[in-house]
Amino acid sequence: MAVRIGVVTFPGSLDDRDAQRAVRLAGGEAVALWHGDHELQGVDAIVLPGGFSYGDYLRCGAIAAHSPIMSEVISAANAGMPVLGICNGFQILVESQLLPGGLIRNDHGDFICRDQRLRVENASTAWTSQFEAGDEIVIPLKNGEGGYIATDETLDRLEGEGLVAFRYLDVNPNGSLRDIAGLTNERGNVVGLMPHPEHATEPGFGPDTPDAMRSGVDGLRFFQSAIESVLARV
User: Which positions are catalytic residues (predicted)?
Assistant: First the structure.
C-alpha cells in the first residue's frame, strides 16, 4: 500500500516541493493539494509547508487558516489524520487552533537561518515514532517570527501533559518560551515545529558537506514515522 501524503500549497508557500520530495524519499506518495480546494483527494496524512502564506499579512498564518482547504484539514485532524505543520505551517496550525499558543517576531528582531540542535521530547506522536525520547537531532531553522508564546497556565499544561514535542538545545534562536521548538496535540496526530525537517532528508542535500551547514538526514524520520503510523492503522 502506498501511503499518500498531501502537501498543501498556499500563495507564498516556499517549501512545498521540498516537502513533497521528503515524502517520496521516505517511501510515500506525495499529493499536491491547493489552498482553494475543498477536498483532500483521499490522502492519508497532510503536511502544511513553510513559506510566507499570503505574504504574512495580518499575522503569519492568519489568512491561510481560513483558506477553503483548511476546513477539510481541521476536520481530518480532529478525526485523527496525521497533520504536520512546518514553520509557516506551524503558525497556520496555531491560527487554526489545532495547537495552542502563538508565534511572534523573534526576540532579537532579525530573520535567522541556522542548523539547530533539538531534543525530541515526545516520541509517541504520528510524526516522531521513529525517534526515542531524549534523542538529539539537527534540523535547519529559518524564520523571522518563530518565538513561541503562551500563558503560564498553557505552558504548564503542555509540560505536564507531555505535549512539548521538541525543544531547542545550545541556543534559543528566537526567544520561544521554555525553549519550545514544537508541539503535539493530545491525540498525537497533529505536530507543529519551526525547524524544517524536509531540508534534512538526503545525504548531500541536507546539506551535509564539509563546506556547508551540516544537517544530515535527521528529518527523514518525521516522514517515515507518519508512513508507519498510517500503515499501523490499516
Answer: 87, 196, 198
In terms of phi and psi (left: phi > 0; alpha: psi -120 to 50; beta: otherwise), the region of 82 is: beta
Burial, 228: exposed, middle or buried (Cβ in 10 Å; 0-12, 13-18, 19+)? middle
pTM recorded for the entire structure: 0.95
C-alpha cell recorded at residue 167: 525543544
- Give CA–CA dist 44/39, Å, rounded: 13
Active site residues: 87, 196, 198
**For the chain, which domains are there?**
4-232 (3.40.50.880)
Confidence of residue 1 (pLDDT cuts 50, 70, 90): confident
Residue with cell 502537501: 7
Listed residue (84, 99, 100, 87) closest to 60, CA to CA: 87
Model confidence pLDDT, tens digit, residues 75-93: 999 999 999 999 999 999 9
pLDDT in tens, 25-60: 999 999 999 999 999 999 999 999 999 999 988 899
